[in-house]
């Protein structure tokens, strides 16, 4: 009997891991065909490079580390639900790892259910400015494929979780950044500015902070009251109000940091519906 139980538990574990690995390279596109600018050994924080995938033993979510060649993965909604809106999704992980399962693939699938395209960005997380350049490139790349992917080029937003939220905000407030190693191409003719922001428990005051001097694109923020980054979200909300930037903030009683698509403990999975309604209010969805 014990043997049967152990075999069953092993089967469930393997099935969970296989499910987590299902999306690793699905619809993956390199955003820098000639190699990411400045992505070479002298700039990497590791002695040797080998991109690695891990599955968290508790949550069973997919994680990726040592990313030096960024890419996007495309998750498109069914044609009958398509709203034309798209979100570049930046998973969190403190710029040291990317929680690409819970804060990437799972988010894209939920957005697809609402008729929104989810573009999961695997960015160079070893440097916040390399990551910024990847985010801008992902925005331009998505606009360049708008017709093929049935996306409205004027409804391309960017969103992120924790450090990914910092990256998303960074992409909206630092539009003029360009590394000295980068050569321009046809994509640079397209705007690198997102049309809106989806910031979920963003670490907006971390990693050097971000100075917001002028009005930016509309922003949606969701966070839990018992999250260490709650003060950062409230501060960001206040700063955006002062410069007359459209902004909406939702604070859940529970959830802590990292609730992703929502947990039973926080009953906060409805942030997707709140976000959808906010897009309608701001005319990104008709």
Summarize this structure briefly.
With 286 residues, the protein is an alpha/beta fold. The protein contains seven helices and ten strands. Helix 3 crosses helix 5.
Write structural notes for this entry.
The chain has a single domain (2-281), classed as Rossmann fold, CATH 3.40.50. It is 31% helix and 17% strand. The protein has helices at residues 2-21, 101-113, 128-144, 146-149, 163-173, 230-242, 271-281, and strands at 28-30, 52-55, 62-65, 71-75, 86-90, 117-122, 156-161, 197-200, 219-224, 247-252. The strands form 2 sheets. Strands 1-4-6-5-7-8-9-10 form an 8-stranded mixed sheet, with helices on both faces. Strands 2-3 form a two-stranded antiparallel sheet. A hairpin with a 6-residue loop joins strand 2 (52-55) and strand 3. The chain starts with a helix and ends in a 5-residue tail after the last helix.
Give a count of the beta strands, DSSP E runs of length 2 or more. 10
Task: Count structural domains.
Answer: 1
Strand content: 15-25%
Query: Which blocks of ≥5 consecutive residues have pLDDT under 50?
Result: 1-18
**How can the largest sheet be summarized?**
8 strands, mixed
The termini sit apart by 58 Å
Count of DSSP-assigned helices: 7
Q: Record the strand order, biggest sheet.
A: 1-4-6-5-7-8-9-10
CATH class wording: Alpha Beta
Mean pLDDT: 90
CATH topology: Rossmann fold
Helix content: 25-40%
Instruction: Give the helices and strands as they follow along the chain.
Output: HEEEEEHEHHEHEEHEH
Which CATH-level-2 architecture? 3-Layer(aba) Sandwich
Q: SS-based structural class?
A: alpha/beta
Superfamily (CATH H level) name: Alpha/Beta hydrolase fold, catalytic domain
Radius of gyration, whole Å: 19 Å
């Amino acid at each position: 009997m014990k043997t049967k139980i152990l075999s069953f538990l092993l089967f469930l574990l393997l099935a969970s891991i296989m499910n987590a690995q299902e999306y690793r390279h699905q619809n993956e596109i390199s955003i820098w065909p000639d190699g990411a600018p400045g992505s070479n050994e002298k700039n990497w924080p590791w002695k040797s490079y080998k991109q690695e995938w891990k599955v968290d033993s508790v949550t069973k979510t997919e994680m990726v580390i040592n990313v030096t060649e960024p890419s996007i993965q495309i998750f498109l909604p069914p044609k009958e639900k398509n709203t034309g809106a798209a979100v570049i999704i930046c998973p969190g992980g403190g710029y040291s790892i990317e929680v690409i399962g819970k804060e990437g693939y799972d988010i894209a699938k939920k957005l697809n259910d609402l008729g929104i395209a989810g573009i999961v960005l695997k960015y160079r997380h070893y440097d916040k400015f390399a990551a910024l350049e990847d985010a801008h490139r992902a925005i331009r790349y998505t606009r360049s494929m708008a017709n093929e992917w049935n996306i409205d080029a004027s409804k391309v937003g960017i969103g992120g979780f924790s450090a990914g939220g910092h990256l998303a905000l960074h992409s909206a407030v630092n539009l003029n950044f360009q590394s000295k190693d980068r050569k321009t191409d046809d994509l640079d003719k397209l705007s690198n500015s997102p049309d809106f922001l989806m910031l979920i428990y963003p670490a907006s005051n971390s990693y050097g902070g971000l100075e917001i001097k002028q009005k930016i694109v509309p922003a949606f923020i969701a966070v839990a009251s018992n999250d260490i980054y709650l003060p950062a979200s409230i501060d960001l909300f206040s700063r955006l109000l002062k410069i007359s930037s459209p902004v909406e903030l939702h604070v859940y009683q529970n959830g802590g940091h990292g609730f992703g698509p929502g947990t039973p403990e926080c009953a906060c999975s409805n942030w997707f519906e709140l976000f959808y309604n906010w897009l309608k209010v701001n005319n990104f969805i008709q």
